[in-house]
Amino acid sequence: MNYKSRITLDIVFKVVFKATGYLVLALLGGIFAMLIYNSISFFLDVKPFDFFTGMEWAPTAKNPKYGMLPLILSTTLVTFGAMLIAIPLGIGTASYIAIYAKPRVKNILKPTIEMLAAIPSVVIGFLGIVVLSPGIADLADLPNGLNALNGAILLAVMALPTIITVAEDAIHAVPNAYKEASYGVGANRWQTLRKVIIPAAAPGVITAIMLGVGRAIGETMTVLMVTGNAALMPTGMFDSVKTMTATIAIEMGEVPYQTTHYYALYAIATVLFFMTLFANIVGEFFINRFRKYHAV
Amino acid sequence: MQFKTNRLSSVIEWGSLLLSTAIVCFFIAVIIWEIFSKGFSVLSWEFTTMVPKEGMTSGGILTPIIGTVLLTLITSAFAVPFGICCAIYLNEYAENTWVTRTIRAAIRNLSGVPSIIYGLFGLALFVQALNFGTSLLAAGLTLGLLSLPYIITTTEEALKRIPNSTREAALAVGATKFETIKDVVIPSAMSGILTGIVLTLSRAAGETAPILFTGAAFYINGSSGYVNQEFMALPYHLYMLSTQHQSIDQVRPIAYGTALVLVIVVFLLNLTAFYIRYKYRKDEN
Q1: Fewer CB near the terminus (10 Å): N or C of chain A?
Q2: pLDDT in tens, A8-40
Q3: B47-284: CATH class
Q4: How large is the average pLDDT for residues A155-164?
Q5: Are the C-beta atoms of residues A240 and A229 closer than 8 Å to each other?
Q6: How many CB atoms lie within 10 A of CB B131?
Q7: Where along chain A do its domains lie?
Q8: Fold type of domain A57-294
């Protein structure tokens, strides 16, 4: 190829590469614009106050009600339950892998946990129906086990790989000198873990938890399949709940285009978007602090 | 305080870590056991090569398998070139300006956006605005958008591992910047890029939420395969068989078989990624 065409090609591809970079910005902007545009269309019909504080979600009733409080509370309940299970298990497992496990055990455990992360959410939801649901029904003497508890357990299983991997990295990244100093003043392994390593790794561990929270809030298929989907105010873990993601997934397929109900689902998606965004930003804030102190 | 540590308490303390690890392993074991033990008896050559019959209560799952394969092909045809180009821009060209930092922040945020929101965006952009209708193409592109941030991130990480001296050597013998990237940087980063692509596609193949409103169908008569028509996909098929089918108990074995095939597909893709990484590492040494 002659010199001139080589230079031209160089310039052309520079522009192409740059354009793709800017298109990513356009993608996020597009998602954001879509959410905001449709939400505004919704808020022209329904007052924001009624939407955020309404206790009843009944968009197909004769006198439709668009109160999203039951949906937010359902999502919060399921996510909270999932974290109650996943945080202790995740940090325990991460500590075990990072400090206690022999290299051979570690080499088996880490790919196994990665394998869990690879299992599609719809398969986990399916197992919730065929394994966990009859189990919960038997133990709690209910007609079926499709409730918030089922969703919380499954979301915990799905959040565990994220929490374990990120927390393990953080614990592993704590400088050895900290450990040696702790042993040097006579602390044992457990005291070193609890009083020195976990506090030093805390920002990374918080990031792990926030990423798990973000994943749990946004997860659709598992909760759609196992939480029973009754849009009522939840009162406990054995109630059937309808999360925000499940509401969108169920109702978007049935709703006529560009009706108030249609816009309402986008308004829910907007709230969902900001909830996960918040979880991720908090997570990012802590990982940056962690990096600053430990220069990972 | 006494100097001698209490034997019992240290056993309990370490035992709690061991226990939590054991519980996590137990979860994994239950998942694998349930799927493989109950799905294996359903699995046969006929099951994977026959189309669903009699309202999906008998026959195989060929149509959803074809749908998932085509869907993944469209996803990769869109997301792979786009993602690699963007990663090249970020790692090789972009200076550290506020625009670049915004692009990076956008990528991090996009990877945290729930998949159902990608579904809504696909519905608004591809199905409605661009008028593709609910189709294989619309669903594939939606999954492509979802995969994009992962491909960009993994590719950029692979590019970062190539030392600058490699680039300088190519530039010094007269290659243009594009030639350096095309002939030197990308080939040396290939293993990392491929690993990232395969792992991302294994995620995309198992996704259900983004294809709910963009083209997945309950049932397609005969084998499908047109980009402008609705399609059947493995994850959506499993969802339908386990929650929406009118005779759920009758189709349960097929649901187990579908779940097993889906898990095997995902595991095989993961093993491929693992193998690529392993092989290239060995070659480098």
Answers
A1: N
A2: 888 999 999 999 999 999 999 999 999 999 999
A3: mainly alpha
A4: 93
A5: yes
A6: 8
A7: 3-45, 57-294
A8: MetI-like fold (1.10.3720)
Interface check B275 vs A, CB under 8 A: no
Helix or strand holding residue A57 (H, E) = strand A57-58
**ipTM of model:** 0.90
| Contact A208/B at CB under 8 A | no
Q: Which of A25, A121, A131 sits opposite B34 (nearest CB)?
A: A131
Q: Do B34 and A113 touch (CB under 8 A)?
A: no
Burial of A36: CB neighbours in 10 Å, binned 0-12, 13-18, 19+: middle
Interface test with B, best of A2, A5, A20 (most B CBs within 10 A): A20
Please list every residue in chain A whose beta carbon sits closer than 8 Å to the beta carbon of residue B217: none
Contact A75, A245 (CB under 8 A): yes
CA–CA distance, A93 with A165 (Å, rounded to integer): 10
Which tokens sit at A216?
Answer: 């749990």
**Residue-wise pLDDT tens digits, A70-103:** 899 999 999 999 999 999 999 999 999 988 888 8
Interface check A23 vs B, CB under 8 A? yes
Q: Is A72 buried (19+), middle (13-18) or exposed (0-12) by CB count in 10 A? A: middle
**Whether residue A293 has pLDDT greater than 70:** no
Q: A21–B113: do the CB atoms touch at under 8 Å?
A: no
Judged by CB atoms closer than 8 Å, whether chains meet at A30 and B121 is answered as yes
Q: Is A241 helix (H, G, I), strand (E, B) or coil?
A: strand
